[in-house]
């Protein structure tokens, strides 16, 4: 199996070399927040409070399903995906096939398999964009049951003629997707450069998908650590590196960026790095959190394994740790506290009478890396008069959410198994 994977990476490298050379060895594409005007999910009628509550509730739902992901299979043999359908916050525009079929897909660091709905799809949820028709693509190939990629599925079956590999993924909310495992050319539009075509990407060609998926999206791009993720499939082609820089939520005119290969190198004087470790599930990007420091006082972490997840909005940590942090912040911040009427946030402050509110920095001490977060990363404006702590309690599984990651260039180096952070103005990437 290892030799087959090496051969595939070598073939991809030969096919991609001219394109990567024109892109100076790497490439970057837009990462579009679901609430951005560029997103097909954008709803201009929603207020700030509406968006904050929706993002928070998606975070809680996603964290709940991530915790349950460690039971490997449902009773019917369908694999239970680590994420709940349609909970991730960022989208990528993807072109699949030859000629290319364009659609928006969820970009998810918590999922491995990339999939999209395909014709014929009598059991698929309604969608705004045309479905991909594999019969009209010259580069589409079904993957056989004997292929390594098929063996890498958590659960696989064979078609009636025992030749084509088939997948079935279920989600904890009852949604599901199933179809053929296939290979196809994926094309990504590069800002200011030539499109980058990636041949022979293994993906799920879904012929049956139902549930809480959005009509505006047609699949998912898996960016996790597993062998079937886009990152793992590219392997040495991108030096096993990718990065992203997330713009603050307040920036509506500029998109975030996700970069691969040479474009994903995170460097500079202020870079800090921490090892990626094997956590509860090898799909996730897990690191060791040791303490939090605020106003010079440190709070030690009892259970320190947390995952870094681009699809979860809020940071979610051990309840005892969060309570200690809330106590310290309440003593330091000279503002009246208010209750969140929806009961989502534990600690909120009335900022209506303050011209310029200054919240203290919070330093997250990871193994070998001290990451200092400003108020942009730790507080979220609930409405014009209220700001709430974007760190909430959760049992069992700690998550560093995407608010905490804003305005950092974050590099995932799978060759050296490390995660790097560099402070950045992500609007200028």
Automatic annotation (TrEMBL):
The keyword Signal applies. CDD domains: pepsin_A_like_plant (cd05476). InterPro entries: Aspartic_peptidase_AS (IPR001969), Pepsin-like_plant (IPR034161), PEPTIDASE_A1 (IPR033121), Peptidase_aspartic_dom_sf (IPR021109), Plant_Aspart_Prot_A1 (IPR051708), TAXi_C (IPR032799), TAXi_N (IPR032861). GO terms for cellular component: extracellular region. Keywords: Aspartyl protease, Glycoprotein, Hydrolase, Protease, Signal. Residues 1-23 form the signal peptide. The keyword Transport does not apply. Residues 90-422 form the Peptidase A1 domain. GO terms for molecular function: aspartic-type endopeptidase activity. Pfam families: TAXi_C, TAXi_N. GO terms for biological process: proteolysis. It comes from the Eukaryota. PANTHER family: ASPARTIC PROTEINASE CDR1-LIKE, OS07G0603500 PROTEIN-RELATED. Belongs to the peptidase A1 family. This is Aspartic proteinase CDR1-like. It comes from Phoenix dactylifera. The lineage of its organism: Eukaryota, Viridiplantae, Streptophyta, Embryophyta, Tracheophyta. The gene is LOC120104501.
């Amino acid at each position: 199996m290892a030799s087959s994977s090496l051969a595939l990476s070598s073939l991809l490298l030969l096919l991609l070399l001219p394109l990567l050379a024109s892109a100076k060895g790497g490439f970057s594409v837009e990462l579009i927040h679901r609430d951005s005007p560029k997103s097909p999910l954008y709803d201009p009628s929603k207020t700030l409070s509406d968006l904050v509550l929706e993002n928070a509730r998606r975070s809680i739902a996603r964290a709940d399903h991530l915790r349950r992901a460690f039971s490997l299979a449902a009773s019917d043999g369908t694999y239970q995906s680590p994420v709940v359908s349609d909970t991730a916050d960022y989208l990528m525009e993807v072109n699949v096939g030859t000629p290319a079929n364009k659609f928006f897909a969820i970009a998810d660091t918590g999922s491995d398999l990339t999939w999209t709905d395909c014709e014929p799809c009598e059991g698929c949820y309604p969608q705004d964009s045309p479905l991909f028709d594999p019969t009209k693509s010259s580069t589409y190939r079904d993957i056989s049951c004997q292929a390594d990629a098929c063996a890498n599925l958590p659960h696989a079956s064979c078609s009636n003629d025992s030749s084509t590999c088939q997948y079935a993924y279920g989600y904890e909310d009852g949604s599901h997707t199933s179809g053929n495992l296939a290979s196809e050319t994926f094309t990504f539009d590069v800002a200011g450069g030539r499109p980058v075509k990636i041949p022979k990407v293994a993906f799920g060609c879904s012929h049956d998908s139902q549930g809480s998926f959005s009509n505006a999206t047609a699949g998912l791009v898996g960016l996790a650590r597993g062998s079937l993720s886009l990152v793992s499939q590219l392997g040495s082609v991108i030096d096993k590196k990718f990065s992203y820089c997330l713009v603050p939520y307040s920036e509506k005119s500029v998109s975030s960026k996700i970069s691969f290969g040479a474009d994903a190198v995170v460097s500079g004087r202020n870079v800090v790095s921490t090892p990626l470790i094997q956590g509860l599930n090898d799909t996730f990007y897990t690191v060791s959190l040791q303490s939090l420091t605020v106003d010079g006082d440190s709070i030690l972490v009892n259970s320190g394994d947390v995952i870094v997840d681009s699809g979860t909005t809020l940071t979610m940590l051990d309840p005892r740790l969060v309570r200690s942090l809330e106590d310290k912040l309440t003593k330091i911040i000279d503002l009246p506290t208010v209750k969140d009427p929806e009961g989502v946030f534990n600690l909120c402050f009335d900022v209506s009478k303050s011209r310029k509110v200054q919240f203290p920095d919070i330093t997250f001490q990871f193994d070998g890396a001290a990451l200092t977060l400003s108020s942009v990363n730790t507080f979220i404006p609930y409405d014009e008069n209220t700001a709430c702590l974007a760190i909430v309690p959760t049992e069992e599984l700690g998550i560093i959410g995407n608010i905490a990651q804003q305005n950092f260039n974050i590099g995932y180096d799978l060759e050296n198994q490390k995660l790097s952070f560099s402070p950045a103005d992500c609007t200028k990437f």
